[in-house]
Amino acid sequence: MNKGYVLNGRYEIIGRLGEGGMADVYLAEDLILKRKVAVKLLRLDFRDNPKAKKRFQHEAMAATQLDNPHIVGIYDVDEVEGMQYLVMEFVDGEDLKKYIKDNFPIPYAEVVNIMEQICSAVSEAHRHNIIHRDLKPQNILVDKHGYIKITDFGISRAGTEDTMTQTRSIIGSIHYLSPEQIKGQMATARSDIYSLGIILYEILTGKVPFNGDTAVSIAIKHSQTPMPSVRDFDPRIPQAMENVVLKATAKNPDDRYQTVNEMAADLNTSLDKSRANEPKFTVAPPEDTVNEATRVMPFSPLGENPASADAGPAKQNSESANADQANPTKKAPKKKRRRRWLIIGGIAGVVLIILAFIMIVSANGKTTVPVVSGTLETDAEAKIKAADLTVGTVKYQSSDKIDRHRVIHSTPKEETKVKKGTKVNLVVSSGPRKVLVGNYVGQEYDVVKQKLEDEGFTVHKRNAPSSSFRSGRILQQDFQSGKRFNPANKTLTFMVSTGVKRITLKDLTGMTKAQVVSYSNKVEINPTFDYVYSDDQPKGRVVRQSPNANESIQQGGNVAVWISRGPKKDSSDELKSFNVRITIPYLQNTSAATSDSTLTESGASGEASSADDSSGSNENVVLIYLKDHDHSLSNVYKQMVITKDTQVILPFKLTGNEVGKYKVVRDGKTIMRDNNVTYDSH
């Protein structure tokens, strides 16, 4: 797109700011609000790619939900002549990647300040259930005052959709992707926390922790190689600050911070003297679920000293004989007592041996149910078998907290004693609950909204006038019918009819063209402009209008406005006026006539047939561009809504040397064009 091009009659291109995997970004001037903006334009090679267009729309929709001073604002989203674009806040500065290069080393207090601003923006996104999935310094802008702005929210995770097959897109993000994203698992808020940890590492050291010749080699390091120490690079970095890096980048998401706010709070105190002697953060090794070998404690059931017990009877017999010889009268009673105690002692010993045997056998026949919650189903089954237990039934249950294929809980419960061979039943996550949505065009918005909110969706509404649908009926929806979405993080937006409203026209006399356009956008009417010589109004000011001031027209209707050329001057090259009559063909939109109220939960038998995206009602929105002495082809001359083949008269004013042009655009495609309009040919 060349410098000076005016996009949609409003945004004048100043120059290119950069390019990405599927879009180019330009600096532009908003001609109405007189401010600089950034225009992100879907690249030409992606304009016929429905997946790329859908992802572009998703990014715009995600970003418009967020309201945070550290997130780049979205001003406008539109499509013209097949070009999808979004208009964003322009940040006069550089991205964080270049900022680190230009300012390294960065003072630790400034590091904390930068990261706190980034965390504030990411936390706002997470509050709206939006996972960035592509946090990296290139997506973080720093203005000339050090103020942080994050952009590119809502990008699809790496490894999906066509643009991810581009080498530069993978290489550009692989340095910051979490291990679970690299493995193809679902990205969560803790995946963004991992990326924040890598960004913090880069701010502190000026480089990324893992590098390699290929994306695959870098991915393997993210998954298997321990995080390098920032203190090895700079021993002055406080251990508490290094601990923030280590905890945020733990390989297992469960070992990371649970929320971005938790990470920000920890980082905020990392320079405090009270944490000067903090030990290095380490991840506790996984608990060993294999039972220890049974140990038998040595003991003697017959006495404390087995040797003396064995020698006892011989010694006692010898002493008894001597005693009997000395005192013959006491010999018989002592023999009886000795025999009785020997029998009692023997019985007691046998009982103790039996009890000990029972205890040992009983202990050897039991085991402990291992901890399997949060582990992959295959790993859980291996743990259960290693504990001499049997895998019982495996049931699947949707979960927004536990990743797909990971165990939610077991029965019997973990760490309980059970007999060996006991069956352990597992409940495994099937991922987030997904609900099948339908085509709701033409239905009552309030009824559909209640039904979808009962399923857990967030539902947004935008109003638009319509002569085809009565007030409260749905005109358009921003999602494709026949698709399944997770209600926990999906917002569904509907365009809802307000019926036909009437507008009482303001007196436009004396206004500039820009003021007329601003007023027309506000009250939703369509102005058409003509130019006349006038002695009453200076050049560029409105001379008259039709309908007149204080008259009533339908919202979306047309108002003709005549703008002054200034006083008439003598000229040999006289302007000639003539009309060109054209008939604009009407295109019947068959998809809007169908209405599917499908709404079933994931897992129901059968798949609902996928309908095309509804483009709205049976109305055609048509844009007419006209070039003559007073009009430029880059600006919309007239916007119309038609419901049948419609005849239109185009007024031209040309000198003898000028050639006029016109074109008619519907749904981003030019359907009529004439590049050689002259007075003589008509």
From TrEMBL:
Domain Protein kinase: 11-271
Low complexity bias locations: 601-616
Polar residues: bias regions: 315-328
UniProt keywords, alphabetically: ATP-binding, Kinase, Membrane, Nucleotide-binding, Serine/threonine-protein kinase, Transferase, Transmembrane, Transmembrane helix
Residues passing through the membrane, by range: 341-363
Binding sites annotated in the UniProt record for ATP: 40
Classification via Gene3D superfamilies: 2.60.40.2560, 3.30.10.20, Phosphorylase Kinase, domain 1, Transferase(Phosphotransferase) domain 1
Recorded superkingdom: Bacteria
Region listing for Disordered, in residue ranges: 298-337, 593-616
Enzyme Commission no: 2.7.11.1
Domain PASTA: 363-430, 431-498, 499-565
Gene Ontology terms for molecular function: ATP binding; protein serine/threonine kinase activity
Reactions the enzyme catalyzes: L-seryl-[protein] + ATP = O-phospho-L-seryl-[protein] + ADP + H(+); L-threonyl-[protein] + ATP = O-phospho-L-threonyl-[protein] + ADP + H(+)
Protein name per UniProt: non-specific serine/threonine protein kinase
